[in-house]
Structure formats: C-alpha cells, structure tokens
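for the recovery benchmark. tokens below, seq after
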C-alpha cells in the first residue's frame, strides 16, 4: 500500500512539473523560426561542435564547461521555462532524429564503430554499465538501441536527417572525421552556414579555444560544474582520445561485423570503408538488404557535394 502511494505521489509530482514547464521538454519544446540546432547521434562530436560554435558566436568570452549548457542548451537537459529565457537566436544541442519544426540544422555524423566505443566508455563513466562490462555485449545492445534514451538506432537517426535535410530552411551535414582532419576548413563551412563573417585569424582562435587538450584541461577543472560529468566517475574522462579509427583496436572482429552487417549500406554512403566483404554481409544480414534497398532508392547515384537554393546547403563528402 505504501509503495503504491509513493508511485502515485511521484506521478502527481511529475505531472505538476510538466504543467509548470519545469521539466526538459525534449521533442515538445517551443521552437522559434531562428533557432539553430546542432544535431547528431550521441557521442558523434556534438560537444566539440558546441565549443566550436560557442567560441565562434560568443567571441568576447570563451566557452567553458561551466557555461556551455547555458549558452548552447539542450531540450533534453533544460526546462521549458529556462529555455524560453535564452536570448535569441538560440543555438541548441540535440540528439533527436528528424523533427519537422527544426528549420536550421547542422548535423554531425560519425563512424558508428567509433560511436559504439565512445558510448560504451561514456556509459561506464555514468555508472550505467559496470567497469567490467564486456564491450562485445554492449555492441549488441547498441545496435538494438537499448542504450541511447530513445534517439533511435544510429542509421535511423542519420538517415532521417539526410533524407529530410533538403526540406529545411538551412541544412549543413558534416562528418566528425572531416572536422578532425581539417578543423579550420570545416569551421569555415559552419561560419558560412551561420551567415557569420570571420577571417582566418578569428577562425584560428576559435579552433585553438576548442582543442581537445583545452577541453580536457577544462574538464579537469570544471567537471563538478557540468551536468554531463557532475555525478559521474571522475577517474574516467569525458574527453577521451578525440580520434577516429579507435574501433580497430577496441572492438572484436565479431562486433565490427555486427555493426557493418546492421548498417553497412549507410556507412558506405557516408564514405566509411568497411572491414568486411559487402557481398558476405549482404548474404548474411537482412538488415543490410533493407538498408541497401532504401539507400538505392533515396540516393541512386550516391551522395554528391551539392548546393541548394534559398540559403540551404548540403555538404556531402
């Protein structure tokens, strides 16, 4: 009886917070026409992009972990009341799949094999997985979308934005790997997307303020001030190697084959080289065949770099 009353009380408390707009609204947030969304699947470089955009937009005072969530908030972490007080135009972090109300979208994609490795370490840091949890076991849950707070499986999230991006007012698609390879070049694209004039000296300063080394140092100093790290294990860093290709050493051959079998056609569409024979993956994976059929319909000639009218732009590499 006491347990039932506690459950009912929690429901009433939750309902009251929702009515008072004191809970994170997620997909039900108020959206303004000039909102700019920094969107990605979790652990695809979104925090780094927050720093790059934040240091580009708020150039008078560099972004830190103590204030990044106030400057570039998330619909998943800040209440509706707080979000409505953020000065416009708002720059908002999101991991949501396609949302019809998001009109100005910068989407960052990352190799899902590296995404799996990064997610695994992050969940251990958050204490959602024990330290000795097998990463191969995690990969199965990762593919089945049992670990990412309802943002959809990796390919579903990416393709939802790739397919619908041309319908947005402004849309820029970037790869995490290209940001790593030439941050200045990709930052120029971001500045153009945001209609911001910035010379190379200013862009270089933004890059230096957003390096992995600086972010690691800020994390050491400010981890208790940032929501993402405050209640997590301090012995495991949030900012890890900040490199691509870590999956080759971290994942077993079976896990690599499982990820490629699940999403290989989408990975190849984005330019990610597979470790396994596509013909063998196609023969053994129904998921591969489904994605292959969809990709061939939506992008029969593959992705090509193209610019659209009305201020929209797609950057496919």
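predicted aa per position
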């Amino acid at each position: 009886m006491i347990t039932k009353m506690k459950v009912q009380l929690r429901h009433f408390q939750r309902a009251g917070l929702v009515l008072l707009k004191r809970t994170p609204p997620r997909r039900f947030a108020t959206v303004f026409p000039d909102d700019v969304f920094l969107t990605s699947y979790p652990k695809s470089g979104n925090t780094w992009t927050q720093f790059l955009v934040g240091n580009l937009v708020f150039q008078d005072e560099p972004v830190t972990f103590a204030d990044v969530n106030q400057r570039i908030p998330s619909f998943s972490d800040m209440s509706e009341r707080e979000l409505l007080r953020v000065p416009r135009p708002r720059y908002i972090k999101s991991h949501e799949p396609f949302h019809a109300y998001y009109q100005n979208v910068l989407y960052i994609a990352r190799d899902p094999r590296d995404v799996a490795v990064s997610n695994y370490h992050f969940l251990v840091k958050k204490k959602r997985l024990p330290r000795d949890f097998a990463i191969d076991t995690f990969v199965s849950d990762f593919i089945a979308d049992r670990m990412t707070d309802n943002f959809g499986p990796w390919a579903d999230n990416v393709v939802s934005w790739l397919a619908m991006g041309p319908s947005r007012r402004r849309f820029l698609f970037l790869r995490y790997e290209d940001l790593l390879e030439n941050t200045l070049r990709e930052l120029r694209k971001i500045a153009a997307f945001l209609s911001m004039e910035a010379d190379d000296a200013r862009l270089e300063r933004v890059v230096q303020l957003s390096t992995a080394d600086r972010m690691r140092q800020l994390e050491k100093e400010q981890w208790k001030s940032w929501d993402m790290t405050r209640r997590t294990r301090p012995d495991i860093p949030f900012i890890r190697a900040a490199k691509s290709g870590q999956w080759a050493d971290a994942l077993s051959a079976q896990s690599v084959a499982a990820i490629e079998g699940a999403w290989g056609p989408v990975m190849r569409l984005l330019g990610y080289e597979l470790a396994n024979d596509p013909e063998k993956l196609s023969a053994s994976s129904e998921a591969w065949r489904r994605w292959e059929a969809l990709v061939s319909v939506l992008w029969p000639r593959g992705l090509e770099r193209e610019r659209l009218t009305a201020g929209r732009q797609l950057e496919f590499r």
